[in-house]
Amino acid sequence: MNQLIIKDLTVSYHRVPAIHHLNLTIDSGICAGLLGPNGAGKTTLLKTIAGLITPETGSVEFSGKKIRAGGKTIAYLPQRETIDWDFPITVRGLVEMGRYPELGMWKSFRDVDAKIVAEALHLMQLEPFADRQIRALSGGQQQRAFLARAWAQESDIYLLDEPFTGLDKNARESVTGILHRLRSEGKLIMASHHDLGEVKGIFDHVLFINGELVSYGDTASTFTEENVQKTFGTEIFSGTHG
Q1: pLDDT in tens, the chain (242 residues)
Q2: HEC readout, the chain
Q3: Which of 35, 38, 56, 77 is the most core-located residue (most Cβ within 10 A)?
């Protein structure tokens, strides 16, 4: 089984550590919720795993190989508010971008690439919207479009930064179903999330973090009041935390 292995990971900004000596091993075929208060290092951890931030110490490996930015192993979806929704690209064009890591700079778009893009649009139920500009979509459709791009990339790991923010109930359920399907196909999903009341319905594993690893394991045994208190410093067990 493929594993994501993080060893002695420390990430600092201006010499101030955001993540302290984190060690973690996660198997493929898992949908893990990344939980912690604002400033806990959730986004930093996702970006570091994706190869977008260079750690001060430590390493990140998948299947025995170091992860590099721009490769196909990892698909990283940033928070929705960081995306330029006015960028002039259609849903189909966005999904086609998922094939670029495979094609490189000089290869032409092939029949197999077009087939994979079509499959991604179908999987995410986006075929009726394929020629629309991404701004014209609802929040849930926009999130599914970026998941379709990630699926077309044929990634092994999906790193999602607050993928449910701003989505209504139907859209949240749709995205949850997609994540569970990817998990069943052996993909590893790690998603930061702030609503503790939704955790059990979405994630089969949870990762508590607050500058350092607090606890990681299956949701049934790890999503406890004790770990919530250690992480958030609160006695409130359910509800929304930033």
Answers
A1: 789 999 999 999 888 889 999 999 999 999 999 999 999 999 999 999 999 999 999 999 998 888 776 677 898 888 876 777 778 899 999 999 888 877 766 677 889 999 999 999 998 889 999 999 998 998 888 888 988 888 888 889 999 999 888 788 888 888 899 899 999 999 999 999 999 999 999 999 999 999 999 999 999 999 999 999 999 985 444 444 44
A2: CCEEEEEEEEEEECCEEEEEEEEEEEECCCEEEEECCCCCCHHHHHHHHCCCCCCCEEEEEECCEECCCCCCCEEEECCHHHCCCCCCCEHHHHHHHHHHHHHCCCCCCCHHHHHHHHHHHHHCCCHHHCCCEHHHCCHHHHHHHHHHHHHHCCCCEEEEECCCCCCCHHHHHHHHHHHHHHHHCCCEEEEECCEHHHHHHHCCEEEEECCCEEEEEEHHHHCCHHHHHHHHCCCCCCCECC
A3: 35
Please list the residues that pair with 11 across neighbouring strands: 19
Calpha distance 200→219 (Å, rounded): 7
Q: Sign of the C-alpha dihedral, residues 124, 129, 133, 139? A: negative
